[in-house]
């Protein structure tokens, strides 16, 4: 369960993240359990859903929403540094257990 402040923040957004179950979209990304393509968050199946995965994808959702040319930057990061050393992935993995982390974007 998310902290009340986080839920209130997400509910206040004009455009809200939408979770969609889609094996096909996730397969396009090497069988990822979750993929964020703003404004949607795609999850492989309901059996793969866990709160850390949702939080990880919400972090990407806010990264995409707040980074100019996000997809280009993400691609360059991955090509130059690899997936695990991509700064966007590092931020998401480092904070996927911190359910208050997305409040940093409420400022």
List SSEs in N-to-C order: HEHEEHHH
Q: What portion of the residues fall into strands of 2 or more residues?
A: 5-15%
Molecular shape: globular
Give me the count of strands: 3
What distance separates the N and C termini? 22 Å
Helix content range: 40-55%
Mean pLDDT: 94
Strand order of the largest sheet: 1-3-2
Helix tally?
5
Low-pLDDT runs of 5+ residues are: none
Radius of gyration: 13 Å
Structural class of the helix and strand makeup?
mainly alpha
The major β-sheet equals: 3 strands, mixed
Explain what you see.
By secondary structure, the protein is mainly alpha-helical. The chain contains 5 helices and 3 strands. The chain has helices at residues 4-12, 23-28, 51-66, 70-81, 87-95, and strands at residues 18-21, 34-37, 40-43. α3 crosses α5. The longest helix is centred in the middle third of the chain and has 16 residues, at 51-66. The radius of gyration is 13 Å and the shape is globular. The model has no long low-confidence stretch (mean pLDDT 94).
Question: Which structural traits does this protein have?
Answer:
107 residues; mainly alpha; 3 strands; 49% helix
Strand and helix map with partners:
Layout: H1 4-12, E1 18-21, H2 23-28, E2 34-37, E3 40-43, H3 51-66, H4 70-81, H5 87-95
Parallel strand pairs: 1-3
Antiparallel strand pairs: 2-3
Helix pairs in contact: 3-5
Explain briefly what this protein structure is.
The chain is mostly helical. 49% of the residues lie in helices and 11% in strands.
């Amino acid at each position: 369960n998310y902290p009340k402040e986080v839920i209130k923040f997400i509910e206040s957004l004009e455009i809200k993240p939408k979770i969609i179950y889609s094996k096909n979209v996730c397969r396009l990304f090497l069988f990822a359990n979750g993929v964020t393509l703003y404004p949607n968050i795609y999850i492989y199946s309901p059996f793969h859903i866990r709160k850390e995965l949702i939080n990880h994808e919400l972090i990407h959702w806010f990264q995409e929403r707040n980074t100019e040319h996000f997809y280009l930057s993400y691609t360059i990061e991955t090509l130059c540094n690899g997936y695990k050393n991509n700064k966007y992935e590092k931020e998401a993995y480092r904070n996927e257990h911190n359910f208050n982390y997305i409040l940093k974007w409420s400022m």
